[in-house]
Amino acid sequence: MLEVSNVVHKYGRVTALSDVSLSAAKGEFLTILGSSGSGKTTMLRVISGLETPYSVNRLRIGGEDVVGLPAAKRNCTTVFQNYALFPHMNVIENVAYGLRIRGRTAQDSTAEAKRALEMVQLGAKADRSIGQLSGGERQRVALARAVVTRPAILLLDEPLGALDERLRQDMQLELMELQRKLGMTFIYITHSQEEALTMSDRVVLMKHGRIEQSGAPLDLFDRPVTRFAADFMGYENILDGKLLRKDGEIGEVELVGGAVVRGTLATSDIQPGGAINLAIRAERIGPVAADEDGLDATLSNRVYRGKYTDMMVETKAGTLRLRSWHGAPNEKGAISRVGWKLSDAVIFPEHKG
Ligand code: ADP
Ligand code: MG
């Protein structure tokens, strides 16, 4: 459905995209995830035709080569964070507009706009003016307006960014349902890993205009392949060391400080002797018995965070963070050794620089 290969884009001396390739299948929900400035919006603008790339090898939408084709001629529509609704038109006029300019009759356009509004649960507010709507309702109108012309691909640039947390979570579910109902390809931009993991079939993680890692949400969550990806996906503990030996997927590593522990290799492209990082989530580390795999540890600090408690422990490999949802011991001596399931400790090569 969407095929982009080797896009380079520069704004003056700033390289916003360096050799990015991605593709999406029909009906796929693809999320482009990355921090501010990583090139997400530029990527969408190149796809939609709002930006002419510095160079591109291939850019196809629905099998059609769209390189050089103006934005209005491309079979895709963009939903922006700021909605970009027409303030002088009411709700249904906003939604019908795209059909009207494509030459559809007034009656036909209104009927179809009505259906699109019902799809986003705004059927009852068709005659309201835009000023009478809440932020969430405006976002729904923008969605209805975007899908009413049935583009092959819907491009969404942080569409929920302006909404408060509760509404955002509701809208995430609604968007997923809408996408499934329509069977449309969605290319969705966000800087929120939680949003990306919730909504997507596949996630592309970007860093400084390049793709750092892409895969199913669970791949990124459980098997980050670089320190940046692990950090971005919320791994609290990332330790340095070197790989001693491999046994299938399992790696034995010597951490800085000398302790030897084990974990799971995220890629096969690490060799014994190579510098690695070992990453573990705070909630996946816990106290273990003296004879079990792990690290000797002493409790140095605890922070009550309402839903859970974070504990710091000191080990030969440095300070580790543990998280408990079931309360935490008070006495310093309460923890003497910590460990983890092998599948929860991810080993990947350390990249210098
Ligand atoms: P994101 O959407 O991930 O925040 P952008 O694609 O907007 O990232 O920006 C990528 C890089 O390109 C950033 O360094 C940004 O400052 C730069 N950039 C974006 N738009 C322009 C522009 N119109 N002129 C100059 N630089 C820009
Ligand atoms: Mg952006």
From TrEMBL:
Keywords: ATP-binding, Nucleotide-binding, Transport. Pfam families: ABC_tran (PF00005), TOBE_2 (PF08402). The keyword Nucleotide-binding applies. Residues 2-233 form the ABC transporter domain. This is ABC transporter domain-containing protein. It comes from Thioclava sediminum. The lineage of its organism: Bacteria, Pseudomonadati, Pseudomonadota, Alphaproteobacteria, Rhodobacterales.
